[in-house]
Amino acid sequence: MNPALRTILIVEDDRLLSESYKTACRLAIYELTGEALPVEVRIIQAYTLNEAFAEIKDAPRLDFVSVDLALDPSEQGIRQEQRTIGREAGGMRILRQLKERQPAPVAVVISGETLLSYATDALQRYGVMHFFEKARFDIEQYKAVVKAALWYIQAVESLEQLEQADSSLGELDEAARCWGEARASAAAAGIDAHRFPSDLELRLKAARARFTDQATGLPIGRLAQGYLKQYVLLQHWSVFCVHVTNFATFRAAYPSQVDPLLFFLAETVREATASYAEAFTGLLGTGIGADPTLVVALNIEQPAELGAIKSRIEATVAHNAPMFTSSLSKAPAPSVPAVHVACWHSKKHQFSDLNDLLDALGSTN
Question: So what's the pLDDT on residue 28?
């Protein structure tokens, strides 16, 4: 994974405190480089309200923002009961602008105890991740929030890559992994996951459902195709194609058995390839009227191994296929599921691109 470029903005009028927050950010970044999240981070410091607005306007993106609420000198030292009704602190104006940015950055606020009502507004109105009191500032907690923010942003980016043409199972798995790390870092800071800018858990579930067959749990569509493309770039690869040769006839006679059959085929393939740690199984042809085809990608050095796997799949299906037809009546032979297993290996076949491979898979139908 190439290092991702992230931008952190620290808005604090006290230069000494600003340097302390910057140091905490650097420590968090240093620790992240040892946790499988390579990041390259630009840290920007703004000391006045105008400087902060200028940085927000000029920065192409912001990932984490630390805001001091009382930036206007006239706001500092205000007693709670003296706060002007309807008045908006400078830091609140910054948060309002940040909320309008897309994507919204993860934000925290740091302020003195005299402006607690400002902090409450920030948490409720602007989706701020956490409020730190300057008098009780905890550098370890601050570091954990920074790490949570950077893990979260990485998860969002991986998830968004699924919408691109070259999406693969890797992006979905990476998004789930980074989201888990983000939640763990938030928990270390004593923060609930719902404080992140968006509900990434629901987005991940929706994405997985969109790219996964409900009956088998297998990747489908571009997700399956993208993973196949990754495999055929390996030095030693093999691809199996398991196609139900009489699927239309079987579906017409036993429509309720289609999902159980596909689940059985997926389990059969998984068992036949269980000794290969990185075996991939996907499902193609899941559209209306299309015949589903299971595709299996393995990293196999010797083509001779393919025959044993092929024979095991065919034998298991032939032995168990009759159970998918009604036991109360004699099913015509064409209705009993039958499969054809084709296979290719890098030592004997070369595909110019993914479309070339998909054409080969389609020719077995």
Answer: 93
pLDDT (0 to 100) of residue 285: 77
Quickly tell me which residue has 């302020």 as its tokens: 111
How many CB atoms neighbour CB 75 within 10 A?
Answer: 21
Beta-bridge partners for 11: 46, 67
Any idea which residue has 């044993």 for tokens? 308
| Chain centre to alpha carbon of residue 122 | 28
Ranges of residues in the chain with a pLDDT under 50 are 1, 76-86, 328, 365
Rounded Cα–Cα distance for residues 10 and 361 (Å): 54
- pTM, rounded to two decimals: 0.70
Domain boundary among 208, 234, 267: 208
- Which among 290, 173, 272 is positioned nearest to 227, based on CA atoms? 173
| CATH number for position 228 | 3.30.70.270
Express each pLDDT in 276-321 by its tens digit: 877 888 888 765 556 888 988 888 888 888 899 999 999 999 999 8
The number of distinct structural domains making up the chain is 2
How many Cβ atoms sit within 10 Å of the Cβ of residue 121?
18
Nearest Cα neighbor of 285 from 250, 320, 247 is: 247
Give residue 166's pLDDT.
52
Q: Which residue has the tokens 């409020």?
A: 131
Of 181, 208, 235, at which residue does a domain stop? 208
- Give, to the nearest 10 degrees, the angle between helix 116-125 and helix 90-100: 10
Query: Alpha helix (H) ranges present in 214-255?
Result: 221-231, 247-253
Question: Edge-to-edge, what's the strand order for the sheet holding 238-244?
Answer: 280-284, 293-298, 238-244, 339-345
Same domain, 352 and 248: yes
CA distances from 365 to 147, 295, 346 (A): 50, 12, 21
What's 32's domain CATH number?
A: 3.40.50.2300
